[in-house]
């Protein structure tokens, strides 16, 4: 089988219990970021706050500062707090900037790493936990088989679709969606943000 003949993520998910979501929302896409540093900073900003609050803070940050390792390292901590970052997140984004600068990080660093190795690498940075690393895997590197059960919206979306379950049960439920669990997460997020839309065909 050639690459052209291989099933797409959407073809695969249509063979699973997520088929109704694919039919409802069409072909969602996972696009890796052009700027890995900015992508990781965005994930730090997004930690533990609402989507709207994160959007506002990101806009202020990118409007006011050069969001590069050098730019963030040079930025005054008080000025960073003025855009809405907590004191702790100011420390975290500076930690990320220092790591990128000192390690001379490029995309090549991650090419031969497994997903688990990338998570282990990133979580050496103070302020980067599993959730932030998984967001980087998906939206920074475009890794296709990440299922972030640490994400509140994923958990709530799963429970809307399939009923109450533990994180372990969610991982088990997601096994048939491999090797495209990142795409499955996109569909679950879309369903959740639609406000518990009525999806015909999902088996509870």
Automatic annotation (TrEMBL):
Gene3D superfamilies: 1.10.1670.40, Hypothetical protein, domain 2. It holds the Pfam family HhH-GPD. Keywords: DNA damage, DNA repair. InterPro entries: Alkylbase_DNA_Glycosylase/TA, DNA_glycosylase, HhH-GPD_domain. One of its GO terms (biological process) is base-excision repair, AP site formation. GO terms for molecular function: alkylated DNA binding; DNA-3-methyladenine glycosylase activity; DNA-7-methylguanine glycosylase activity. Signal peptide: none annotated. Belongs to the alkylbase DNA glycosidase AlkA family. This is DNA-3-methyladenine glycosylase II.
């Amino acid at each position: 089988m050639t690459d052209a003949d291989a099933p797409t993520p959407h073809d695969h998910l249509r063979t699973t219990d997520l088929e109704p979501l694919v039919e409802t929302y069409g072909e969602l896409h996972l696009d890796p970021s052009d700027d890995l540093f900015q992508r990781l900073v965005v994930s730090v900003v997004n930690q533990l706050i609402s989507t709207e609050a994160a959007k506002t803070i990101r806009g202020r940050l990118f409007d006011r500062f050069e969001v590069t390792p050098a730019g963030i390292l040079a930025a005054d901590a008080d000025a960073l707090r003025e855009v809405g970052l907590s004191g702790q997140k100011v420390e975290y984004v500076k930690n990320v900037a220092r790591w990128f600068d000192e390690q001379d990080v490029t995309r090549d660093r991650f090419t031969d790493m497994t997903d688990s190795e990338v998570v282990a690498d990133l979580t050496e940075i103070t302020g980067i936990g599993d959730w932030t690393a998984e967001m980087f895997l998906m939206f920074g590197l475009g890794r296709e088989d990440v299922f972030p059960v640490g994400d509140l919206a994923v958990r709530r979306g799963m429970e809307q679709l399939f009923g109450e379950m533990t994180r372990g049960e969610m991982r088990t439920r997601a096994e048939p969606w491999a090797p495209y669990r990142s795409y499955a997460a996109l569909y679950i997020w879309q369903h959740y943000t639609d406000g518990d839309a009525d999806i015909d065909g999902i088996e509870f």
